[in-house]
Design a protein that fits this description.
This protein has 258 residues and is α+β, with helices and mostly antiparallel strands. Helix content is 36%, strand content 28%. It has two domains: 136 residues, Fructose-1,6-Bisphosphatase, Chain A, domain 1; 110 residues, D-Maltodextrin-Binding Protein, domain 2 (3-Layer(aba) Sandwich). The chain is built from eight helices and 15 strands. Bound molecules: D-MYO-inositol-1-phosphate and calcium ion (CA) (2 copies).
């Protein structure tokens, strides 16, 4: 395993432990609203600081793009961090959230780690090396028709609420064509679930780099496809995400490009 992946796993586990400790004391959690319907807790900040400290112990020159503290440094290597993906779930004790850490080199995804501290599952990938769940190789599902597929999604509920009508059209199309839809509430985990075949596809409008970077590499290295909603490859900048096994991705594309 690559040294950077080891460090990412160590940092993600430490951040995960901080979350789990707080879960038994959610009533004391301090929460504030960052912007419309978007919340941040003290734990998001403590977890991000912990992750950054561990990265900088080993790679002091590398730059950082974190959800809570933004951009730091200017280096060919950048670590993209979402300390808690699924903060709304975390605040309510709804057991679906994770830590997401990716490394890019000259803007190319090189490594990705997503850690689910409740199930203690580590999803990881390095470019050209395949994807793993707890060290075992994973692949996307073999489901070959949308009719038999289970699809994950996320709703526009924050500053992107103006996209709700557009999104609801896509939701209606997909509901009518699949076995089921799930909205677990953590985009990074949704992407990992596509990578290991627990769901066959995923789409969401308006995601950010830190939601997507690690999961995107994990999907690609597991044989899946990830694009924007019209099938183009600028998904990280664009933020509108469509992913799936190759067959489901192409069928979903027809239902979602409206
Ligand atoms: C959110 C989660 C959620 C998705 C939102 C994201 P956060 O991340 O991934 O599933 O629907 O778009 O912002 O705010 O909990 O880090
Ligand atoms: Ca997130
Ligand atoms: Ca977050």
């Amino acid at each position: 395993m690559h040294g950077m992946v080891n460090i990412a796993i160590r940092a993600a586990r430490e951040a995960g432990e901080i979350m789990i400790r707080q879960l038994n004391h959610l009533e004391t959690l301090s929460v504030s609203e960052k912007s419309n319907n978007e919340y941040v807790t003290e734990i998001d900040k403590i977890a991000e600081k912990t992750i950054i400290n561990i990265i900088h112990e080993h790679f002091p020159d590398h730059s950082i793009l974190g959800e809570e503290f933004g951009k730091q440094g200017d280096n060919e290597y950048q670590w993209i961090i979402d300390p808690i993906d699924g903060t709304t779930n975390f605040i309510h004790g709804f057991p679906v959230f994770c830590v997401s850490i990716a490394v890019t080199r000259d803007d190319e995804l090189e490594h990705g780690v997503v850690y689910d501290p409740l199930r203690q599952e580590i999803f990881s990938a390095s470019k050209g090396q395949g994807s793993q769940l707890d060290g075992h190789k994973i692949r996307v599902s073999k489901t070959n028709s949308l009719k038999n597929s289970l699809i994950a999604t996320g709703f526009p509920y924050r500053s992107n609420k103006d996209k709700l009508d557009e999104y609801l059209k896509t939701l209606k199309n997909v509901i009518q064509s699949t076995s089921g839809i799930r909205r677990p509430g953590s985009a990074a985990l949704d992407l990992c679930y596509v990578a290991c075949g627990r769901v066959d596809g995923f789409w969401e409008f308006g995601l950010r780099k830190w939601d997507v970077a690690a999961g995107a590499l994990i999907i690609k290295e597991a044989g899946g496809i990830i694009t924007n909603l019209i099938g183009e490859s600028d998904y990280l900048e664009n933020g509108n995400i469509l992913a799936g096994n190759p067959k489901i991705h192409s069928e979903l594309l027809e239902k979602i490009t409206i």
